[in-house]
Amino acid sequence: MRKLLLLISAVLIASVSLSAREYHVAKTGSDQNDGSAEAPFLTINKAAMVLKTGDTVTVHAGIYREWVQPRNSGADVYHRITYRAAEGEEVWIKGSEEVTGWVKQGRTDVWKVVLPNSFFGDFNPFAEPLVGDWLSQTNSAYVVGDVFLNNVSLFQATTMEGVQEPVIPRNTRKPEEAKRTWYVEVTDTQTTIWANFGPGVNPNKELVEVTSRPAVFFPALPGVNYITVKGFHLSQAAPNWAPPTAFQMGLIGPHWSKGWIIEDNVISNSKCVGISLGKDRASGQNRWTIERTLSGFNRELEVIFQAEDMGWKKENIGSHIIRNNEIFDCEQAGIVGHLGCVFSLIENNYIHDCNAKRQYSGAEVGCIKLHAAIDVVIRNNVLENGYNGLWLDWQGIGTRVSGNVFFNNDHTDIWTEVTHGPCLVDNNIMLSPDAFLEWGQGAAFVHNIISGYITFHPVTERYTPYHAPHSTKIVGVMNFPGGDDRYFNNIFTIAPDSTLENKDAGTSVYNERPPYYEGIYNDMNTRNVTNPLLLSFNEQMAAGNSQPARFQLAMRVANNVYYNGVKNYTWETNPVSSRADAKVSLEKREDGIYVKITVDNAVNQAQTSIITTDSLGKTYYSNGYYENPDGTKLAIDKDFFGTVRAPKPTPGPFENLSQGENEFCVWKF
Predict the structure, then answer these.
(1) Confidence (pLDDT) at 550
(2) Does residue 401 contact residue 424 with C-beta atoms inside 8 Å?
(3) What are phi and psi of 456, to 5 degrees?
(4) Phi-psi region of 348 (alpha: psi -120 to 50; beta: other; left: phi over 0)
(5) Is 228 strand, coil or helix?
(6) Is 48 helix (H, G, I), strand (E, B) or coil?
(7) pLDDT for res 567
(8) The CATH number of domain 97-211, selected from 3.60.9.10, 2.60.40.1180, 3.10.580.10, 1.10.287.3510
């Protein structure tokens, strides 16, 4: 019987392959055509209506102003439905419409346009308030709409005075763009926009666009599986704030589906999220904000259990591939995902300038912000100029962060929050002033360069789920006394030209933050080291504290190298310290990103060995091994570039590190 089923399956797959078609879309086409190369469709959505398993649509050069909504699924990873830009052709899909007819207002730089609400169809983003759980707003007048001048977004002013005399937000990364603003008023029949495009700019002679769609590539319904999106410029959409307790729409995303590939695209100018790998509306929708009863923490727990009842498991959700994309100017995050990101691969993406305008913010901002990143691999990406580089919140179990470059992130490079691990962080270059915020436990740092501070904060008031290895099955919930972390074969340093205040590089103690951030690890780049130290019970007793303050899970720390006078962990095995300046620096050039580091003989003195699943051990609460997503053992036996490590490997991410100055190209443009 089994052989018969396999034979039937093989016959069905073969028939799908034989019947697969390639359709074409072009600006010269018509939706009345048959979609052939000779008679292409005019819109991508027309192709979406007819595509079936194994089919491909090739889209030719031009700007397509539509919200593409895939309707049909591919069969499996080998028999997909593919949407692709024609090779060598520039294809834009925009969630905006061009606007002309601007009228100058007197002798000012302010212009005005009046649009009938019918211009926007059934979705007027200028009438939709920006709202959601964990959104921090100083003014409730923000909307999801945006105005663009030559593909650059203007800043929203919440009063007419803000258009006439623009006010630059204090923390913005875009002070020049902040001088160009817009203000909107919406009635039952029309939308009036006033905009300051800057001195001497006539918007009727430039490209001016306003958003009119919440997404550009996003299924209307969940469960559209095995879709490939390749080679497009995707831009200018108006999705709303995407917290883990609400529908997470993005400029592009699979909408609670399985097996998407999003690759080789340029994704930009989302009001909130670029790529969403997040949850559907059905498991919860901003109940914390709307009802104001239970805490957001309780509401998120409800979402997780509701999602589990709805079929949240590997067979149905996740397993996406996000690769080779450039993602920027997304004001919440480049990539977001809660629950829907499980078992995914995020690799070779250049993600930058997310949450750069800083007109609004909240607890969901970063180049990448993921909840429940179960068995997610994040590797070989560049994450720069964000508020947070990578934020792993809740259930970061089986997550691996490998070979990434982090720099110029304001808040931190990596933040793990209320997650029990195992979370493996290896071969990364972390060059922002704040390297790592540990609000959880079970992280393992191996062979990284860490040129910034580590901040620890126990979270004893929140209990979050942990899962069976390589599964969404919930095993239990627990809080976070902290610890249970590992640090092996890393290079630690503090940049001597750091702009952080009150820093003492000789003791690695930094006391700017309020007491809410309590220190741990006893040096090793940590800040706010306060007594009593939050060490394990035995370590506190050994330190002479006969009445330990609280329990903290034991650490495993060995064979790290410390430069610039950074002090090692007190109970570390075989640390190596040097007061020499490692002179770690990064430079962006026309052809790529280069890192320079100067080392002395300290790197040769470290008693390193190849770090493996066995040497890392199991996490305390989640009872998980640091291993591959398929459950096989791993060894960190290759460096940042894939070079095989020696039996006594060089500390840090580069195996070919020699005494003196070293320069490495870590990213090619």
Answers:
(1) 52
(2) yes
(3) -115, 140
(4) left
(5) strand
(6) helix
(7) 82
(8) 2.60.40.1180
Torsions phi, psi for 124 (to 5 deg): -105, 100
Q: What pLDDT is attached to residue 581?
A: 92
CA distances for 78 relative to 24, 324, 325, 346, 604, angstroms: 21, 20, 22, 19, 47
Q: Which residues pair with 607 in a beta bridge?
A: none
Is 178 within 8 Å of 168 (Cβ atoms)? Answer: yes
Question: Quick check: helix, strand or coil at residue 304?
Answer: helix
Both tokens assigned to 511: 């006391």
Q: How far apart are CA 364 and CA 288, in angstroms?
A: 15
Q: 446: which strand partners?
A: 426, 488
pLDDT at 540 over 80: no
Q: In degrees to the nearest 10, what's the CA dihedral of 432, 434, 439, 441?
A: 70
| pLDDT per position as a tens digit, 578-605 | 989 999 999 999 999 999 999 999 999 9
Q: How far apart are the C-alpha atoms of 541 and 521, rounded to whole Å?
A: 16
CA distance 270 to 247: 16
Please give the single-letter amino acid code of residue 245. T
Rounded-to-integer distance, Cα 345 and Cα 377, Å: 5
The letter for the amino acid at 528 is: N
* 14 CB-contact burial (10 Å; exposed 0-12 / middle 13-18 / buried 19+): exposed
Helix (H, G, I), strand (E, B) or coil at 117: helix
Do 24 and 35 form a contact (C-beta atoms < 8 A)?
yes
Asked if the domains 97-211 and 373-668 are classified in one and the same CATH topology, the answer is no
Task: Kindly state the tokens that stand for 321.
Answer: 């591939």
Q: Is the pLDDT of residue 558 over 50?
A: yes
Query: For 411-427, what is the mean pLDDT?
Result: 97
**What are the residue ranges spanned by the domains of the chain?**
97-211, 373-668
- Distance, CA of 147 to CA of 152 (rounded, Å): 8
Write the single-letter amino acid at 302: E
Which CATH number applies to 373-668: 1.20.120.530, 3.60.20.10, 2.160.20.10, 1.20.140.10?
A: 2.160.20.10
**Cβ count near 86 (within 10 Å):** 15
Q: Which whole-number Å values give the CA distances from 552 to 440, 472, 555, 557, in the listed order? A: 11, 27, 9, 15
Can you tell me the distance from the alpha carbon of 343 to that of 330, in angstroms, rounded to the nearest whole number? 24
Mean pLDDT of 362-378: 96
pTM, entire model? 0.92
> At residue 107, what is the residue type?
R
